[in-house]
Give the backbone structure.
Amino acid sequence: YNSHHFDGLEGARERPVFVTNVVEAIIKNTGGGIGDPIYDHAEGALLTALIFLQLEREDIAFATLKGAYQVLLNTESVEEIDTYFACCKQGSRAKQSYNLFKKASPNMAGNLCLGLGTRLSLLQNYEIADLMCGTDMDLLQLGRTKTVYFLILSDQDPPTPLVSPTFFSLM
């Protein structure tokens, strides 16, 4: 992609509601609304937990959606994912969202991890991940000064259902 890059989590540290906007946009536009809504909600809780984990960890300088996705890719079981959240303080946003996800039965939890991983699989494409994990565009400036961004998106391109809604959810 010949494009400027945007931070898919821009502003989330200062305004955690942005996490909700991003998660809802991703779930809704990557197959959400098909089948039992409990899966969408539970995968959303897991994605919320993974994003807040990125934001809350002190060893991560620049939290990204790709970083959240990497936790799913780098673990072989829900028990391994548990270790990431074991270091979270009680009451942290990451821990709270993860605790909600953990209410699922072990079999369902595994299916939810697989489902969320499938939704985010476009982030395995380095060009897409880099497009959504950069800082070329200051999206927070939109509300402060007159700013114009021109977007050219193909409605035939597979990444569009992930990239476009994520971008617009930050507005």
The two ends are 22 Å apart (CA to CA). Residues 37-56 form the longest helix (20 residues).
